[in-house]
Amino acid sequence: MKYTKEIKAAVVVIASLSLLFWGYGYLKGKDIFSHYNTYIVHFDNVEGLTRSAAITINGLAVGKISSIDLSKTHPGKMQVSFQVDSEIPITKSTIASLYEP
Question: How far apart are CA 10 and CA 101, in angstroms?
Fold first, then answer.
């Protein structure tokens, strides 16, 4: 079976677009091959916190900040969404706090 130039060009374009999509997501701090659980917390002050900042438990990086927005449900507070590796157990009694190393 002989492949035409159009089919070869289409395969190259599809592969290039897929690589571009994955690379753009990777540069934004999103890894499509990892499994994360997403959590939302509300803070009064998020000074110094940025998107893609590391989430640590006792110094071990286990996730990252995915978004920081104004809270619609809690006026005057900031809503922080973060992703933590799905293998890390997070219970209802877990306390989220901000600190600077």
Answer: 49
Distance CA 63, CA 12 (A): 34
Which pLDDT tens digit goes with each residue over 55-75?
Answer: 998 889 898 898 999 998 989
Are 80 and 67 spatial neighbours (Cβ–Cβ below 8 Å)? yes
CA angle 84, 71, 52 (to 5 degrees): 35
Report the alpha-carbon angle 97-32-92, nearest 5. Answer: 30
How far CA 93 is from CA of 48, 89, 90, in Å, comes to 25, 11, 8
pTM for this one?
Answer: 0.66
Q: How far from 56 is each of 11, 47, 67, CA to CA, in Å?
A: 41, 17, 16
